[in-house]
Design goal:
Strand content: 5-15%
Order of helices and strands: HEHEH
Distance between the termini: 20 Å
Helix content: 40-55%
Structural class: mainly alpha
Number of helices: 3
Radius of gyration: 14 Å
Number of strands: 2
């Protein structure tokens, strides 16, 4: 597990958005970059602020999984 600070996490999200935007501007044939999937239950709000269009929030909805 990666334990990054909120500042580092926001920076990673921002870098991913910039990379996606840069590649999207190249208009590569057959490549669809409209969506940006980043963020999970603990940081999804920050991810959306930085441009995420998909987030993974299962724990927010269903709670923590029980170990089997």
């Amino acid at each position: 597990a990666v334990d990054a600070s909120a500042t580092e996490t926001r920076g990673f999200f921002r870098q991913l958005r910039v990379l996606r935007d840069t590649l999207q501007a190249k208009e590569i044939s057959g490549v669809d970059l409209r969506e940006l999937s980043m963020g999970m239950s603990g940081d999804f709000e920050m991810a959306v602020e930085e441009g995420a269009t998909f987030v993974r929030v299962g724990r927010q909805i269903f709670g923590t999984r029980q170990k089997v």
